[in-house]
Design brief:
Layout (H helix, E strand, L loop, with lengths): L24 H11 L15 H13 L4 E7 L2 E8 L8 E7 L19 E2 L2 E3 L3 H20 L8 E6 L10 H7 L7 E6 L6 E3 L2 E10 L1 E10 L3 E2 L8 H14 L8 H14 L8 H7 L2 H7 L5 E9 L5 E2 L2 E10 L4 H12 L3 E9 L9 H13 L3 E8 L5 H5 L4 E4 L11 H4 L6 E3 H17 L1
Parallel strand pairs: 3-6, 3-7, 7-17, 9-16
Antiparallel strand pairs: 1-2, 2-6, 4-5, 5-18, 8-9, 10-14, 10-15, 11-13, 12-14
Helix pairs in contact: 1-3, 1-13, 3-13, 7-8, 10-13
């Protein structure tokens, strides 16, 4: 699987003025290889097995002298776990976790085959380049290099390459946190996806480091009525009831709320950009600030988006039941209020059940780990302006939060101003620059040396 992808990173200067080298190219090669494994996860247990890519990852670790363990929650649904001894047994262990699966991709919509790992215009293209096989490649490259050079972290370094993040994590992070808890003994903190990348804001390079997420409430709604012939009056129509409920949820104007995590982000952005941000006009401010505004636009309120409707089997038959699914996300501390609003909008004839319910995890933006992550970015990019960031979506951090491990979103990349990184999450023509992967590998190396 180790196909050559060229020497784009050799002895070239990145935008931060640093010099890359042959060692930096390994992340690009690994990223391309990882993409070539189709690990599409369609949810609800329908997924291509992660086992083949898990074996590839375990092989890379084995080459570096790391004893990696492949565990399966179900046939083929494989994760890779490893623990590398540090130099100081009294120092806390640290976890780096990431996921092996990806969302579906329609090849007809892409400029390149989505599982080709093709290199074009200085980027590795393919499903998972951004979310999150590029990040896994950086982790593998830096761990392999450090071990080749005989450099170990102070505390133990725990690695988890996981199945099923693109659904609920039941076959991945939830499983390993529940069934392989001993691997994570002594871990209090972790890093994973969705943070640490640069955002160009009028020439200022903002680096959002994720310190929290909204909570998750995925719900199945069910309306029950009286089945009958489609030509007859149907005052108790399940399809109509579910449609009305979904419409009420979709139209509900959730109020803006300023949580401590988002307030810290706004303060950081205002300082970095040399501006003031009006907390009473956050929607307008998000639009005014462009890409910087995208960092908080999705985290200033709860949301509930209907995503699926199912009912009936024939045009002239009124079905007795109808269902819908809703992706609910809520701000920390608002879970009970969120459900009370949902129940009011559903009305008396529609019931709900959880498909997935996860609390909103949070990390300390004023603590030593955030400071070390920010310092690692500034060491490679002196113009970096790190800020705390709360994610609108969710990650495997929620599963590790259950066992007392706090995660920061930190997959560092230095990106050009024209690359719409946000738009490529689950999007078309997903790609990551080779020089960004090399940059991120150096940042991770700096962090692991100093933490």
């Amino acid at each position: 699987m180790h196909n050559k992808i060229g020497q784009a990173g050799d002895a070239e200067h990145d935008e931060a003025g640093r010099t890359g080298g042959a060692a930096d190219d390994e992340a690009g090669r690994i990223c391309a290889d990882l993409i070539r494994f189709d690990t599409t996860n369609r949810g609800e247990g329908v997924a291509r097995p992660e086992r083949p890519v898990a074996e590839y990852v375990a092989g890379l670790l084995d080459e570096a002298g790391v004893e990696a363990k492949i565990v399966e929650a179900a046939p083929g649904r494989a994760s890779v776990l490893a623990r590398i001894a540090g130099t100081d047994p009294s120092h806390p262990a640290f976890l780096i976790h990431g996921h092996l699966d990806v969302v579906p991709a329609d090849a007809a919509e892409w400029a390149v085959p989505p599982f080709s790992g093709e290199v074009r215009d200085g980027c590795v293209w393919g499903r998972g380049a951004v979310d999150m096989k590029g990040s896994l490649a950086m982790t593998l490259a830096v761990v392999r290099r450090r071990l080749r050079e005989g450099r170990r972290t102070r505390g133990d370094l725990v690695l988890a390459f996981l199945a099923d993040e693109e659904c609920t994590g039941e076959y991945g992070s939830r499983y390993v946190a529940r069934e392989h808890r001993e691997v994570f003994e002594g871990c209090a903190e972790a890093i994973s996806e969705s943070g640490g990348f640069s955002v160009d804001a009028g020439g200022t390079r903002i680096y959002p480091i994720a310190t929290g997420e909204r909570g998750t409430m995925w719900m199945k709604l069910t309306a029950r009525g009286t089945a009958g012939h489609g030509s007859k009056p149907a005052p108790d129509n399940a399809v109509a009831e579910i449609a009305h409920a979904v419409s009420r949820i979709a139209a509900h104007p959730w109020p803006a709320r300023l949580t401590p995590g988002v307030r810290a982000l706004l303060d950081g952005l205002a300082d970095a950009l040399g501006t003031t941000i009006d907390h009473d006009r956050l929607d307008a401010e998000a639009e005014r600030l462009g890409r910087a505004g995208h960092l908080f636009a999705g985290t200033i309120r709860n949301s509930a988006n209907p995503t699926r409707l199912d009912a009936g089997y024939k045009v002239n038959v009124v079905p007795g039941t109808a269902t819908a699914q809703v992706d609910g996300r809520y701000l920390p501390g608002t879970g009970e209020e969120f459900l009370a609003v949902i129940d009011r909008l559903l009305g008396p004839k529609v019931t709900r059940e959880f498909i997935n319910h996860e609390e909103a995890p949070a990390a300390d933006p004023a603590g030593p780990t955030f400071a070390a992550l920010a310092d690692a970015l500034r060491a490679e990019d002196p113009l970096a302006r790190p800020v705390p960031y709360v994610m609108a979506g969710g990650t495997d951090a929620k599963s590790f939060h259950r066992i007392g491990i706090t995660s920061f979103g930190f997959a560092p990349l230095l990106l050009g101003p024209d690359l719409d990184y946000f738009g490529m999450f689950h999007g078309i023509d997903e790609r990551v620059p080779l020089d960004a992967l090399a940059f991120g590998t150096r940042v991770l190396d700096h962090f692991l040396t100093t933490r």
